[in-house]
Design brief:
4 helices; Putative Ribonuclease inhibitor Barstar (Modular protein); globular; Barstar; 4 strands; Barstar-like_sf; single chain; alpha/beta
């Protein structure tokens, strides 16, 4: 399923994806080949330090990465070492991210940073003919079984709209009456 929202430069830039246990996320989140997709393991992000380390490792942040919120925001908004036509960050097992009760504010800050990076990319000039920005989206993926582990995800559900099919109605769909 190709998701139109993930190819757009419009907000929201951070999304919640609730999926069935064991469902393959790469099948749900098919994005164009010219996008860079990075997968962040939520299990490695239980603490702020773990989250910052995981992002640094997965994105190969420069040596000057300061391991703080400001540095994360700065690096996500400037991925010069990772050129692409669009970016997708998938945080698996998002229910494991910043799980201590006193880290609720940190979780909100984390989602805000993902959104702010998306906004920054939406405003950048691109190399294509339109000159419009580039898509940058983050998906917090959580199984339906673990969705209730957090009261507020600070991200709207990912719209699962499909691109119109050129092959006609889906199999089993009723044909319009004539």
């Amino acid at each position: 399923m190709s998701l139109i929202a993930l190819q757009s430069i419009k907000k929201p830039w951070a999304h919640l994806l609730v999926h069935a246990e064991g469902e393959a996320l790469d099948k749900l989140l098919s994005v164009p080949a010219h996008f860079v997709t990075k997968t962040i393991s939520g299990k490695k992000c239980r603490t702020k330090a773990g989250l910052l380390d995981e992002f640094s490792r997965v994105f190969s942040f420069p040596d000057y990465f300061g391991h703080n919120w400001d540095a994360l925001e700065e690096c996500l908004a400037d991925l010069d070492w990772l050129p692409a036509k669009g970016y997708l960050v998938v945080v698996t097992e998002a229910d494991q991210v910043l799980t201590k009760p006193d880290e609720e504010d940190d979780f909100e800050t984390f989602v805000e940073i993902l959104s702010e990076a998306g906004e920054a990319w939406s405003l950048k000039e691109s190399d294509d003919a339109t000159g419009d920005g580039l898509p940058f989206h983050a998906v917090l993926a959580v199984s339906d079984r673990h969705k209730r582990s957090r009261h507020n995800w600070f991200a709207p559900p990912l719209a699962m709209e499909r691109k119109p099919s050129k092959s006609g109605p889906a199999k089993g769909a009723k044909k319009p009456a004539r």
